[in-house]
Amino acid sequence: MEPAEKKLKAMEPQPYHQIGNGNSNTMDVEQQQKVMEPQPHHQTGDENAEDALIHSSDPLHPANHISDLCRRFYTLGWVTGTGGGVSIRHGDHIYLAPSGVQKEMMRPTDMFVMDYHTKQYLRRPLVLKPSACTPLFLAAYTHRNAGCCIHTHSQWAVLITLICEAGLQPDPAHPDTPTAVFSINEIEQIKGISRGGAGSSEIAEGGRKLGNLGFYDTMRIPIIENTAHEEDLKGELEKAIEAWPETCAVLVRRHGVYVWGKDVAQAKTQAESLDYLFQLAVEMHKLGLKWVS
Ligand SMILES: CSCCC(=O)C(=O)COP(=O)(O)O
Ligand SMILES: [Zn+2]
């Protein structure tokens, strides 16, 4: 190979199972050596059937879409340093990223696929572990019938939990638990948030269409405490989902936020609107302005 050709080849992104990431949570030295040896493609047997789950020329196929979204979210600081992630539910199939990998470098071949009903993996890349966020994503699918769940480590999300922790912006509607919720109103971007938790097309009891929040509504996002291990957040996240039937997100103190929607578009736009509101509130706080009346 000519030197210029070699240089170009080295610049091409490689699937995770070919490069490793040095993250001990994912691949130790022994595992990395193991991936150099010829191996069966996957653990579960029918290679062609498994590959059909992740190979598609459609950029919106979940295996392609998750990789693409993570590259975009990386530039926003949402999934840097391997933190955060995205999961998509596609019919009965749940697509999940691997754990501890550089999320912006993922390829469709790195994806895990789980059956929604049995919770069994239909596809499991051999040398990778499924995201530690999996139980949290499943909670959004099970309890909110979500079609997509996004977890960010955005610094705006973390900062807003710290400001609420300091008790500087108690919510008048919840005086007993002033630090357990982030509330904001009278900001236009609130209209980007659905009223019903999973989707604006949902119909509430009595036939009322839920739609999105209005300018004078108060958006409330519960905050749960962080745990040493991501998967241990599941119980508190489920409790928060139950206690706040209108929320489309749960903040995790000193960690980030989980946001879901009925489909990728709704989860993504809600994550964007929330990040905007978190940032705005942090900046308002710096200026001594209140964000809830
Ligand atoms: C520095 S990331 C710590 C783990 C975490 O909070 C996270 O969101 C990523 O989990 P994953 O298992 O998907 O890598
Ligand atoms: Zn996280």
TrEMBL record:
Chain sites annotated for binding substrate: C133
Family of this protein: Belongs to the aldolase class II family. MtnB subfamily.
The encoding gene: MDE1
Cofactor note: Binds 1 zinc ion per subunit.
Biological process terms in GO annotation: L-methionine salvage from methylthioadenosine
Cofactor field: Zn(2+)
Amino-acid biosynthesis found in the keyword field: yes
Catalyzed reactions per annotation: 5-(methylsulfanyl)-D-ribulose 1-phosphate = 5-methylsulfanyl-2,3-dioxopentyl phosphate + H2O
High-level lineage: Eukaryota, Fungi, Dikarya, Ascomycota, Pezizomycotina
Listed PANTHER family: METHYLTHIORIBULOSE-1-PHOSPHATE DEHYDRATASE
Function according to Swiss-Prot or TrEMBL: Catalyzes the dehydration of methylthioribulose-1-phosphate (MTRu-1-P) into 2,3-diketo-5-methylthiopentyl-1-phosphate (DK-MTP-1-P).
Enzyme class: lyase
Entry-linked SUPFAM superfamilies: AraD/HMP-PK domain-like
Pathway assigned in UniProt: Amino-acid biosynthesis; L-methionine biosynthesis via salvage pathway; L-methionine from S-methyl-5-thio-alpha-D-ribose 1-phosphate: step 2/6
GO molecular function: methylthioribulose 1-phosphate dehydratase activity; zinc ion binding
Enzyme Commission number(s) of this protein: 4.2.1.109
Catalytic machinery residues: E188
Compartment annotation: Cytoplasm
Binding site for Zn(2+): H151, H153, H255
Principal localisation: cytoplasm
Pfam families registered for this protein in UniProt: Aldolase_II
Residue intervals of the Class II aldolase/adducin N-terminal domain: 64-282
Any GO CC annotation of this UniProt entry: cytoplasm
Name of protein: Methylthioribulose-1-phosphate dehydratase
Chain residue ranges for the region called Disordered: 1-25
Compositionally biased residues, Basic and acidic residues: 1-10
